[in-house]
Amino acid sequence: MKAPERPAWWRWPILVLLVLFWRRQRDEFYPEGRPPSLVRVDRRANILRALAAQDWLLLLYLVTLGGEILAGHGPKRSLAFSLVAADLLIFVAVLFHVRRSSSQPTAPRAFLYRIGILVALLGSFFELQWILPAASGSNVDASLYALDLRVFGVEPAVTWDRFVRPATTEWFAFFYYGYFIIVALHVLPAMFFGRDQRFLVTLGFGFLWLYCVGHVVYTLVPAYGPYAHLTFAHRLEGAVWWPLVKRTVASVDGSARTDVFPSLHTAGPTFLALFSFSSRKRVPFKYTWIPLGFVATQIVIATMFLRWHYLIDICAGILLAVSGMIMGRVALRWDDARVAAGGPPAWPPLAVSGSILARPAGRASRRAQDAPSA
């Protein structure tokens, strides 16, 4: 008989710290020990009016994951729910600390906000090995494979099996692993050194949209990929990059992760390539959009050559990337209206001088941007 699951012991210290944090903030807001009437609530204390589009997106994302876990019947539901609940509580605490005032937050708060964004997204990503089994149903690999054959008449992972050699495997494994590098090189400098709010909102919301939607859809369309469902005549082998890719996947318990549809290895690089092309008049994108486009195509091919994804996963990833571009512009219009009504900036500025990110290219544009205001 299987022993009952035990909840994660470390969630209780987190809850205690959050309660203490709330008591401290409550005393600061309400020195008399109780909140005033709703009619007289200070506007600066109304944190709901200060939330940016990406704040609402991440809150909805974490709440949705928690609801799916509660509605699921998979293993380790208690652990999975504890992890997502901890992510949500930490993110709410960060939002409360940063968004509690309509005035511009200090640099430490702006830095904390960015860390909170990373914790909410990356935390749930590394927890997918528990979230997906708990929230998902039976895998649908057979259906995805049959759909590929019915719609496209081919499964690239099978068709390309005859081209599998150590050299080709290493080539595509190099680009597959490079996915993590290009994402980090584009997202982290923009988050911590970008100054243009419109640029940050469009890039930030679009990128977060990809992974919030992708992770939720993973629970609705669970599958392991061709490597687990199909058989192949040639074995994938390589000296450097292929073992590195396998170790990276194994480090997050890839055998338990049904993270196939849509392909985020396709959506992420495709979104960055489209965004770079649309921003090609800016530095550094005017220099990087062409090589990035080539790298993105190789990553997309690698996902199928290395047998991680079906062709339908790739199509879904491309559609998700396009939707990210659209939703980034929708979020920009929404945040423009919110800021015009007196709300704070979507991304609290870190006040880092000398940043070249999101700066229009060209000497005249730079002179105009650096000129003192009247």
Summarize the structure.
The protein is 66% helix and 1% strand. The protein has helices at residues 11-29, 53-71, 77-99, 107-126, 128-135, 141-151, 156-159, 166-193, 197-220, 226-229, 241-251, 264-278, 285-305, 311-340, 363-370, and strands at 282-283, 359-360. 37% of the residues are buried.
Protein model, in words:
With about 375 residues, the protein is mainly α. The chain has one domain (about 10-365). The chain has helices spanning about 10-30, 55-70, 75-100, 105-125, 130-135, 140-150, 155-160, 165-195, 195-220, 225-230, 240-250, 265-280, 285-305, 310-340, 365-370, and strands at about 280-285, 360. The chain has a two-stranded antiparallel ribbon. It starts with 10 loop residues before the first helix and ends with a helix.
